[in-house]
Structures are given as C-alpha cells and as structure tokens.
Amino acid sequence: MRPSGDNTGLLVCSPLRLEARAVRRGIGGAAEVRATGYGQSRSGRQAAALRGESFGMLAVAGTGGGLTDDLTPGDLVVGTEVSDGSTTTRCPVAPLLAGELRRAGLPARTGRVVTVDRLVHGSERGRLAAGGALVADLESAPLAAAAAGRPVAVIRAVSDTPRRPLLRPGALAGGLAALRSLRAAAPALENWSAAAGPRRVLLAGPRSFCAGVERAIEIVEKVLERQGPPVYVRKQIVHNTHVVADLERRGAVFVDELSEVPDGACVVFSAHGVSPSVRAETDRRGLRSVDATCPLVSKVHAEARRFAADGYLVALIGHAGHEEVEGTLGEAPESMALVETAEDVARLRPADPVKVAYLMQTTLAVDEAADISDALRERFPAARAPGSDDICYATTNRQQAVRAVAAESGLVLVAGSANSSNSVRLVETAHRAGAPAYLIDGPSDIQLSWLRGVPTIGLTAGASAPPAVVEDIIAALSGLGPVEVSERVITTENIRFSLPKEVRSS
Ligand code: SF4
Predict the structure, then answer these.
(1) What's the gap in Å between 209 CA and the centre of ligand 1?
(2) Does residue 190 have an active-site annotation?
(3) What is the mean pLDDT of residues 397-417?
(4) Which one is catalytic: 324, 408, 428, 484?
(5) Nearest alpha-carbon partner for 426 in 494, 496, 368
C-alpha cells in the first residue's frame, strides 16, 4: 500500500474489483491499487477526485476489448496514448513497459487505447481499429488524464476479440485469461515505479549515421527510385534492423548470396564491401551491380592489393566472420592473415620477416587495435603500417565521444544492432571508461532495473543507427519522469562521399 502522504509513489487504478485484486496479487505492497469503478462516469468522478490527491505516478490497469483479429484473449496492450475523443493522454513509457513484459514471457504489444461509453460489438470494433486503436475500454482516458503531467501508463489485458466476442461461449475463458495476464503484468509496473525519477541524459556527439552509411542508404533509395522494387541488396546494406526493415518496406530485398538474385536483376553491394570473387560472380551471371561499399573500406581493400602485390604478408587486424573482414581478406587470400588478438601475432609465419604489413578493420576499438599493432611492431620492427589510419573517422570520433559521456554517467546506452561492429565497440569503450553500458536496438530493449538509482544516463548511437532511434529512447525515458537533455560534442563532422555514377543525377 502507498503510505498515506506519499506523493512519490505509484497509484494503480483498476476499474473492477476483480481487476484490482489481480493487480494487487502481482504487485505486492509496492503500490496503492484502487478499484475505481466500472464505466466512464465512475472513472470521470474518480479522476476529478484524483486531481486533489498527491501521488507520484499513475497507472490504469484492467481488461479491455481487443479490436483487431490478430489479438488473442490474454494479450496485453500497453497504451502509447489513450483517448476518448475529447481528451488524449500520451504514455511515452509504453515501449519500456512492453519490453519488460515481453522479457517476462508475456504477449505484450504497444498501441492506441480508446475509451468508449459502452461495450463495443460487431462492426464497431472494425471502425475503432481503422482509427488506429488496438483495444477499447470504458475508463482509461479520464483516469489517465488525472496524471496531469506525472508519469502515466495504461495496460489493458484483452478479454474479448472480434473473433471471440463477449456474450458468446468462451467469453468467460477470455476474461480469466485476461485477469491472469493482468496479474502477471503487475511486477512490470513495480519495476517502472522503482526506476522512476528525474534524469539527465548526456548525448555523445558525434553519434549515429556516418557518411558511409548515409551514402549506402541513399544508393538503395536512388536505385529504388530509378527502377522500382524489387531491388536486391547483397547482405544487410548496413548493420541496423531499423534501416533494413524500412528499406524492406520500400521494396529492397536483402539476400545472403548472389545465387538468390534472379538473372538479369540489379544487385547492390553493402557498405561493408565485397571480395573480388563476388564481383567476378556478378559479371559471370551478367547481373548489373551498384557498389555501396564505403570509400573508407575500399581504401583498405586497395592497400591490401598493393601490399600483397609488393610481396608482403598482410596481417589484417579485425574480427573473424565480419563481412568487411571477409571482403578485405578476399582481395589477396594467399597473402593475408587475420589477426584478432596479440596472441595471434605470435602465430604469424611470414616467408620474410622484413616483408610484413598490417591493416585494420575500419570499425575496431582504437585502444584494442593499438595493442595488437604494438605487438606486431614488436615482433616485426620493419612492419609497414597503412598509409593513413584504417579505423575510420566515424569510429574514432564516436569512441572518443562515448568516453566523454561515460565519465559523467552512471549508465551508458548505445543505440545499435547486435551485429553492428562499431556499436559493439562503443559499448566496450564505455565499459573500459568505467560505466556500465548496454547495446539496445530501441527503447523496448532497456531493462528498467538498469535505470534504478541512475540519475545520469549517457546516450550514443553507432554509425549505422538512425538518429530517430535516439529520439525514441529519450521520449521513452521521459515516461519515467522529467528528462533534461544536454550534449557533449567532442568534434563535428562534415564529411560526405559522392555517389557512384550509376545513381548520380545527370
Ligand atoms: S563506419 Fe566508417 S568505414 Fe564504416 S561506413 Fe561509416 S565511415 Fe565508412
């Protein structure tokens, strides 16, 4: 129970006694759970009374009518906003709560909640769904509005759906499934309450898209514009799920191998580059190709060819299995060796110890790569280095920037996908700078337990993560309390790469 006079705690409004009991059982004593009564007029009266009360955050938790065919009784809908047509309350914490519920194994989605004045039947569900709502209820909108700027959440457990309506056989089972889900969802509200509070977010600058990623995305967009879908892209154009999903929606088809590209089609090579054998296969098949390889990756390929042609053993410092590494090694497979650690250096067997050169994957951690290149130079003092740094400007800048915010933060969040090398390196860099750090694809990956007792969060994004994801994360954090955003800019970037001739405007 919320202690009387507690103006910071969580108040949960559950319209029906049965709903309130289910939530109470799941949430323990971490919140006051109040049965606020069935229907719009009762919830309106409760909302008016709540305006005079002191509480820190407010949740509405109950059952509701699903509006779309893909919902099943027991599914949980976490409201992104709740509206009764005249009042709309936004609930920015929705993705955080939905992520928490899904990690607990519960079927949770985010979506719009509508509050109506009577139970919905038949075609009315379709009409509300067409307006973008996922679930309908009779109480949420006035109650949520009573939060009056304080953190607010709405969770509705689906009791009936278009296929399994009320007043039909099975309705009781649907109601019971909803109550079970409501009880199981309650601990997430407790976690939300424990993580709540005002926060500072320190943005690392620069962050997010680099010039090579912007160019690669623009190339796919231009090819889509010119020839229409489908446009085949070998491998993910850049390592980010949002970018890939967005381009897929617009007609890009991502394939792992050229064998999946139909004869006569056009294929785009990803920003990470390809080995000469892929280009040869493209020619042999008579496929048209557009190369989105980042010019800074192409530079490393050119260095590999040059050193190999001059008779050097080329040690490539990088991570096994990464597409960029596979492409670069493919330039001179018989003259190159992958070096992942300083220990690997001891295993190199050059024909001539004086003819050793080294190159680097563009997205390595600068400090780790330096340890390995030091080991190489120690064993082979005459080792030739790349003409200019292989670790690219974008990687270097983002690592310096994350180090700067990590020094001031209790936690660092890095927006990026799990297969993004430069994003993973940012997490490692923040760790080494002394801050706990996590890689997240988006706000729903944030675990509320990470945020407990952390007033300052450092936030950055890998070079392949869209800037919009950073905005989404900040918006979601605002569902835990006021957020003050400031930026630590270590440098500004104004690099742009020209497009390949195939997509350049004439
Ligand atoms: S991270 Fe660096 S190498 Fe990779 S695409 Fe961006 S600029 Fe190019």
Answers:
(1) 9
(2) no
(3) 98
(4) 324
(5) 368
